[in-house]
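Problem statement: downstream parser choked on a complex file, so we are re-checking the raw output for the protoporphyrin IX containing FE run. The parser issue turned out to be on our end (a line-ending mismatch), but while we're here, posting the original submission so the record is complete.
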Amino acid sequence: MLSRAVITLQTLALFAAPVTAGLLLSSPGGRVLHSASAYAVFTVAVVHVVTAVLAWRPGGGSPRPILYAAVFLGLTLAQIALGIAQVKTLHVPLGVLMFGMSVLQLSRVSAGRRTRVAAVSQG
Ligand code: HEM
């Protein structure tokens, strides 16, 4: 439940990034907005790692969500570095890739929840 909320927030923050990037390219105040959306993605990525660690029980669930969240945080840091260095040829496609990964992860988490709800209602 918590991880689904965090991944939803992450996906929304990643959707805001190209929107604010458009503003960055077309209006004077756009840079501040794109930086704010970058901070939002970074904050959610850190919260994602923390919630993935807290949700994991040693000897219980799979540690895979922790690995996914850690890789995602690494990509976010790379994305910030590429943005600051103005390497647009890598920065823009990596942003698209991160959004795609987040949507995929959200659909996986939601499908897993539907399966559990169906199993419980069947008794
Ligand atoms: C598809 C999504 C994205 C697009 C199209 C995009 C596009 C851009 C563009 C065109 C720039 C300006 C580069 C320049 O000044 O030459 C930029 C800068 C930047 N981007 Fe993005 N970006 C995206 C996603 C992200 C994400 C997800 C993050 C962070 C997690 C991010 C962080 C930054 C940063 C920190 C800068 C530098 C801002 C500054 O110099 O003040 N971007 N981005």
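For whoever reads this later: Residues 9 and 18 are 15 Å apart (CA to CA).
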